[in-house]
Amino acid sequence: MNLTSTPALQGKIAVVTGAGSGMGLATVRAFLREGATVYALDISQDNLDRELGSEDDVTLIALDIADSAAVNDAFTRVRDDHGRLDALVNAAGVSTPNRRATEWVDDINHRMTDAMKKGEEFAPEFLTDIPDEDFDRVMKINLYGAFYAIRAATPLLKAAGGGAVTNFASVAGFLALPMPSYYPASKAAVVGMTRALAGELAPFHIRVNALAPAGINTGMLTQSGDDHVQALLALQPLKRLAEPEEVAETLVFLSSAAGAHYTGQVLSPSGGAHLA
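Structure tokens predicted for Short chain dehydrogenase/reductase oxidoreductase:
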């Protein structure tokens, strides 16, 4: 009896954005393990080279996902190499637009958690201190970047006779959490775009879904320190962070034949923080 099974993505062509770290990197590695040929897109050439430079069946492309021309060029390369695409994962994203904003948010979060420990009230204020360029930059990366990638990918997905797109949203788009509004606004918009495109692309056998995670053990989350992590975990029935590798298995599922009847869905690996 032959007990070996065909890898879930054997012979598939995939594009993963945000591929140099975190969820994007875990997804690339899972896709490679499952037999896919992967185009790994990330803003950092150094991260791509360090993490994936020794891998086979992966093409590394450094670009700013907010640059629509650069995104189009990347998918032109996929077209020239293969003439089709089977799966797209939009994992590129930021919670803050730059180091200055990160330090500002971290300071407020630390003061908020300190007040909570002391049983004191603390009302964080973000709104009036967000400059236009910060709001624009986060929206360009988290929302526009996903849109640019899907728009460029769609002709190649159609050429393949169908395929799968998975976008990264966040529980922040569903919950009333105090934070700079550009992040939840961008992630809620990703959900709306996902559902609209699921309807539009279904006749072409292209499935479009989203993940809305809470705490995942990546640098984007843990950079703010353990107090911030613990405050997030307090919202979850499961009191631990998810590992990128375990969430990547959901992306394999959604991108493979096993997930063939899922579209327009928002799956939430959030430890129970968000219940649809």
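The chain has nine helices and seven strands.
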